[in-house]
Amino acid sequence: MRPARHLVGWKVVLNDLGHAADQIRRILATPADAGTDAAHEQNDALWPYLSAWAEHSYIVTHLADQHRTPAPALTSDEQQQWTDQAQAAHRIGDLDPFESWYDAQGRLITLAYLIENDESTVLTLAGDLDAPGWQVLGRYTTEYKAGQSSPPPVPPGILRPDASRYTPRVATAEIILQDLIQDITESRHSGDVAEILLSAADNTGHAPGPLTRTQQLITTAAEFANALETRQGQHVAARLGVIGKQLDLLTRELHVAAEELGATVAVLPPHRTPRPRFVTPSPLALTARPPATAPTAAAPAHRQ
Length: 304
Known about the structure:
By secondary structure, this protein is an alpha+beta fold. The chain folds into 3 domains: 6-64; 76-149, no CATH class; 177-263. The protein is 50% helix and 10% strand. A 4-stranded antiparallel beta sheet has the order 1-2-3-4, with helices on both faces. It starts with 5 loop residues before the first helix and ends in a 17-residue tail after the last helix. The relative contact order is 0.07.
């Protein structure tokens, strides 16, 4: 492979997998009867190495597929013609990307439909479609031919190097939004609802509120979009950053509204009675509603 900044990382991971394979062979060299304490200890010892292979073996799989015979390249004139045509279609929305990956040279490869006169051609493109300089590498009649003839994909990247689906997750008390909605529908005092609203926006306790979790979700998604290292990814990351700031403002407004609601020291009026479970109320009982405000008492007559 040509020199590229990702090769160093791949070599480290491959060496790591080699070490894990050696340890697996070493541990399995001593047989242990199933169900015994020795078998449990053996399983515990194997787990870190097996999980490493389960999570990182995709790198080996992708690299093994690099030895593919490349398709005949377009001539320089053909490439320029199709590139101009594709870029013109992209400007008017007639280029429809549907799959992308990186190749061994570090180029972003994209498969896209070029739509012309109600007919579509599958193009292989190299480069960021939202930045200048991208070009067409080939044209094909089907997705399958395009995929087989294009530069093969290399292992995709990850957002955070230390992230692992096999790492035990720390149990955190979570506030479920549906539970908060149900709590509000069962509340009778304004102070109770105010506390529920404050818990929804809480970011200080051991049980983060839904708004806090939503903000964490948006922040992580923005980090991912920026890590794509494309112009459109940076645009989306900036948009998510704005949404995060708006959510932060919304959270502060919710705090204020909750405090104002709690300060009302109010209770629901008594005419809001529960629905009977077994007796059907009369139509009058269902439609009768008290006046919006209590009637004003008649003023005493002034003495002459």
